[in-house]
């Protein structure tokens, strides 16, 4: 199961998930973050509002707050990186390396999908052009078939006796 969520158009991780990874209590992680709040601007970390939290809990099939009194903090990729300087332990550093690798994999998957989408769009536009060309060719063929099936009205050449004179 993934621990990375998409909230406010950003990939983030919950404070409780990070605390579990770092093997510390969530409240201890949050204490360190609050003590070093100047290291965590809004693009590194933010607190979920009530509706975001409820939506997230429904996505991960959790109906209760699990004893939480406050709404959770979520950390962006840069916030997770900053946590390693706040939680200065070997475990924090190792976890941070793994989390960075996961974020990079997700970014690469997104880029790969973007390139694939662009290639598909190019193929679609080629097919549309080919369809138009084929329609034009079939239109010309239809015109030729119609001309061949029409009787040709030709005047006879040569001597023809008058049938009126006898």
Automatic annotation (TrEMBL):
InterPro entries: KilA-N_DNA-bd_domain (IPR018873)
Superkingdom of the source species: Bacteria
Protein name in the entry: ORF6N domain-containing protein
Occurrences of domain KilA-N DNA-binding (ranges): 3-86
Source organism of this protein record: Mucilaginibacter rubeus
A Pfam family per the record: ORF6N
């Amino acid at each position: 199961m993934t621990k990375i969520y998409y909230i406010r158009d950003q990939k983030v991780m919950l404070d409780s998930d990070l605390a579990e990874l770092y093997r510390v209590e969530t409240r201890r992680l949050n204490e360190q973050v609050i003590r070093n709040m100047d290291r965590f601007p809004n693009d590194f970390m933010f607190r979920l509002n009530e509706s975001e939290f409820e939506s997230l809990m429904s996505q991960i099939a959790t109906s209760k707050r699990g004893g939480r009194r406050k709404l959770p903090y979520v950390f962006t990729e840069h916030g997770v990186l900053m946590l390693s300087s706040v939680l200065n332990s070997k475990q924090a550093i190792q976890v941070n390396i793994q989390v960075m690798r996961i974020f990079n994999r997700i970014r690469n998957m997104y880029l790969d999908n973007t390139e694939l989408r662009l290639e598909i769009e190019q193929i679609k536009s080629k097919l549309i052009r080919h369809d138009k060309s084929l329609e034009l060719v079939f239109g010309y063929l239809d015109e030729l078939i119609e001309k061949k099936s029409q009787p040709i009205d030709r005047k006879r050449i040569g001597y023809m006796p008058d049938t009126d004179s006898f």
